[in-house]
Amino acid sequence: MDHWDEVRMFLAVAEGGTVRAAAEALEVNHATIIRGIGRLEERLETKLFDKPSSGYRLTDAGTDIVDLARQMSMASSQLEAKIFGRDQGVSGPLRLTLPVSFATDLLMPTLVKFRAAYPDIALEIIGSGAVINLGNREADVALRVVVGDRTPPENLYGTRLCEFHTGHYAHRNLLTDRSPPAAWLLGADEVVPSGWQPGSGVKMATTPIRFAEMRSQFEAARAGMGITLLPCFLGDADPDLVRVPAGPITRAGEIWLLTHADTRQTKRVRLLCDHIRVAMRGFAGRLAGRIEGGDTSLR
Q1: How far apart are CA 259 and CA 241, in angstroms?
Q2: Are 173 and 223 in contact (CB under 8 A)?
């Protein structure tokens, strides 16, 4: 089968369930996906999808070939990775994925220096905490917090950089005798802490406030809305925030720098990894919650 573009579109619709999801995944427009599926169905002389109002559903014929399409996709990604891995130039595309807060509040000066040193490398920064498949070339380098005592997948080449700690923070004005009850500011999957209560007579409201993403949660704490769990490097760096009395500083996991075995020797991958590795080791104290001067007491 030589119509690989059409096969990619078929697979994207099969996995995404809708033409819209496939178009977003492949970064093409809606009509391109529809035409591609049509061409593939004409070539195979069979219908691959039923099209109810709720989305695209595989026919029996579509189900029969979806695994083959996945195998073709994997083979294509492996081929690209092998070729990319032989590239020793300092120009061309390079994708880095990392948590948004690492990009905006920690590593942006490092990335600026990297860009200045290698202006011909087309760096793409993907700020996301989502799992990205390095084997499929969705990214070339990943900086990730590996939770607890787990380790990265075996098919990835990883360097453990440092530990990652979190703590509870609030605006300094919220921790006074005259302040109103503070709310727990929680992420989508977080729960109200049960093993400790804020010290120094801090009054807590009975109803928490929830957020879909951490940046809004952080800004709410800065505005004095309540108490929230934050990475120590983020909370300790803000002059308006203080650690909540009696709040624990908790090891959340380890930070790893990850590449794929097939691409880790590519020169621009190695150069970027070297820059990130040096910078992150310099930030190890902040990431572990050791505030300025090695002092771990409350401010």
Answers
A1: 35
A2: no
